[in-house]
Amino acid sequence: MKLRIDIKVATPKEWIIRVLENLPLFLQDHANNERKVSTVALSFVAKYPDRVDIIDELIETAIEEMEHFREVHKIMFDRKIQLTHQIEEDLYMKELIELARNGKDDRFLDRLIIASLVECRGAERFRIVYENITEPDLKVFYHKLWASEAKHSEVYVKMALRYFPESVVYQRLNELIEAESVIMLKQPFSGKMH
Questions:
Q1: Domains of the chain and any CATH numbers
Q2: pLDDT digits over 157-193, tens only?
Q3: pTM of the prediction?
């Protein structure tokens, strides 16, 4: 049983160039994304309270994501970068969520896989930041986050495998990996997470 996702298409180098050109924008967007992924984990608890086998893991994931938010906010505070007043619509996420099928079980599976893909892409991008940033405190921070996001990606796959056969999970995972690559490449590289 494989839990680690292999994304199909790597993030183009243009993305990290934009991040390094406007690090305050990236940090603001990173903070916003940590808040959103925390609420995603809690939304599974709210929408699927009958899936009792994964509630503890979902709560733990939400707490870890909020801890990441606290850490990135501290970095922002120390650099005198404010949080944004509004969280802009994330077209990457919107397009991924639009791929989720209807029907309680199909939607549950798809949302778990989408959450896993988003965490996987986040891990890849945090690794890229870690490899390219020169500031020691940020280098340490993004190295730590890279490992954590990769773990979260595996957690969502593991949750899916608790409720669905391997063949169903991996077939849908492969379909959504293909779609995620297309969606990712369509996005303008603005120096944000997605």
A1: 13-186 (1.20.1260.10)
A2: 999 999 999 999 999 999 999 999 999 999 888 889 8
A3: 0.94
